[in-house]
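Q: What does the assembled structure look like for these inputs?
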Amino acid sequence: MINYKNELNQGQYEAVVRTENPLLVLAGAGTGKTRVITYRIAYLINEIGIEPERILAVTFTNKAAEEMKHRLRGLVGTAASSVWMGTFHSISLRILRRDGSAVGLKPGFGVIDQDDRMALFREVIKTLKIDHKKYPPKQYMNKISWFKNTPQYVERQIPDAGSFHRIDEVFREYQKRLDEQFLIDFDDMLSLTIRMFEVSEEVRQYYSSMFEHILVDEYQDTNAIQFMFLRLLAGRSGRICVVGDDDQSIYGWRGADIRNILEFDKHFEDVEVVKLTENYRSTADIIARANTLIKNNAMRRGKELTAHLEMEGALEHHSLLNETSEADFVTKMISKYADEGVSYGDMAVLYRTNAQSRNFEVNLNKVGIPYKVVGGTAFYQRREIKDLLSYLRFFDNSFDSVSFSRSLTTPSRGIGTTTIDKIRDFASKNAVSLIEAVKQMFPSFSRNQQEGFRQYVGIMDHLASFTKVSDMVNGVIERTGYKDYVLANESEEEAKKRIENIHELYNAAVAFEETSPEGTLTDFLASTSLSTSTDEASGDRVSLMTIHSAKGLEFDTVFLTGLENGLFPLYGSIDEPEQLEEERRLCYVGITRAKRNLYVTCAESRIMYGNRTVSARSYFLEEMGFAKAKASFTPSTRQFDRFQPKARKPMQPQGKEASSNSKAGKKVRHEKFGDGIVISTSGEGASEKAEVFFKNAGGLKKIVTAFLTFVDE
DNA sequence: ATCAGAGGTGTTTTT
DNA sequence: CACCTCTGAT
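A:
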């Protein structure tokens, strides 16, 4: 049926048929990674005779899993749906649903989503009377999230006391509340699964022998405990195949450990390695730029892509005056290509930070070009959706206090925080559910409040009369009068959008019933917590997204924007070689998204923090070989600091060579903060301020230039 | 209990 | 700039 030899090149073929030993596939951008994975699974099923449900395939996003399943269906038909395919998180969740009792989870446990988790941290900080201004809840959340991704947490340790203000207390209190509410958070999915494997040899054995073959996509972005997960299932000599590209590792900040891929052959026995370097995506020009850029990185296994498509395209760099002209330029080019017949869905505008999307949005709107901002607020994060779901969440889990207070107060019923806090206390002290607390405390409420509660409890009772998730969704929409509430409180335009979303929620519930006929409300709610904005379809519209979100995607025409020092590479990374390398990899990912046309832009100044700041061209521009901007698009005569094209230890900025009107990159000294590097400047004359990164004194600070001494080297 | 307005604060990137 | 939280007025 499938002719593997004909449909794959030599390297891909090897990657597909070597199924005995641990296999590392180093697959550069556009070298047919997805093809390898799908064909390998097909090969395992069709040629080796492995049962599809004994194959585990881990992807980076839910969307990638869907895409892969779709492609696999084309190769093996309905068997595709039996393969275990999904992200580490979704697979872990599935495992925990079945065996979570081994680590003390109650069968119907819920999953708290990111926003609610943040809300929970705020509560905790408040209860512990910690000054949230001095110690923002967000920091605790990040630190604890980070900690939950370490082997120590898997081993049940508690964060090092003293490492951050009262963090162990916060951790305990936060965890206590989660436990009380029978909730787990995002990070728990993975760490609890691994803990379970360690605690229960029986469970581990069950999954380990069930999965005869494990495949992992985007292996370069796995972290320490994801590695543990794989090791526990596959053993040291197991049948595991990981596919990745060390040059595309861009999640170090999230704990991804590039050593997982660099040292794969140390972690497993008898490892075979296949390198895929033949690129079938981009023009030779694009590949050449990508290669020269990434050569500047020291931490890599080292490989060079070769272009295999006979195709011509544009590859240009344009330096624009400011962020508006950058957006103008991009918009103009998009129109041009659209006129030439390139469809909108085949074009993408990429940037380093989400905040940059605005200018493009404004301009594209003006001209009427359809676009989609990927990575904005995810569907399930929208206010109206969260409001409605909070009823279902509370109905599903009457211990969930975040959902309780949200649903109880939207639309408002004359019950406020004071009363809610009382109910919480009561429930917590008596170890009863919140709904039980309400019932017992009922006589103590004022008449008005009693009316509110009666209505609220009525909705919950109403929900109990349904079995189908979609009916419940509909029930909430009807009984809360949510549409009227929206119409009464929002502008007509806004209300229309929200109501559309509400209908979409109902559709999602119907779709859920179709894809998982056995699925419960709990499952549906968990799936909403796992869903992210990158999972949503984009249609025939121009994609606006961060380079991180663009990972794994490709477009005919790509605009890579904002190539300025301080923005891309971003501030903090400039002085840290390792981080700078990650930024460079990110740039590499950006370049290699383009198939035919690539435009790389920068702006000489842009508004940041509300004032206009001038910044220097990105190091990466010179490294890609864009030594000078095109004359026609550089009205400014300003000179920028230049760097040796092949500096190894990237770039101690050379202050001396900078011109007088751009101080970016210069080394400075401040009486109090010590040595630093100027990132950008704003203002004129005596009020001129410089944004300076102080390595040893708290990072980025804004200082009036007069207080700085410029240091010559 | 709710809302509007002031004022302070901080920004990467996301499963 | 844009968000968020706190405050004081209804």
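The first helix of chain A runs from residue 4 to 7.
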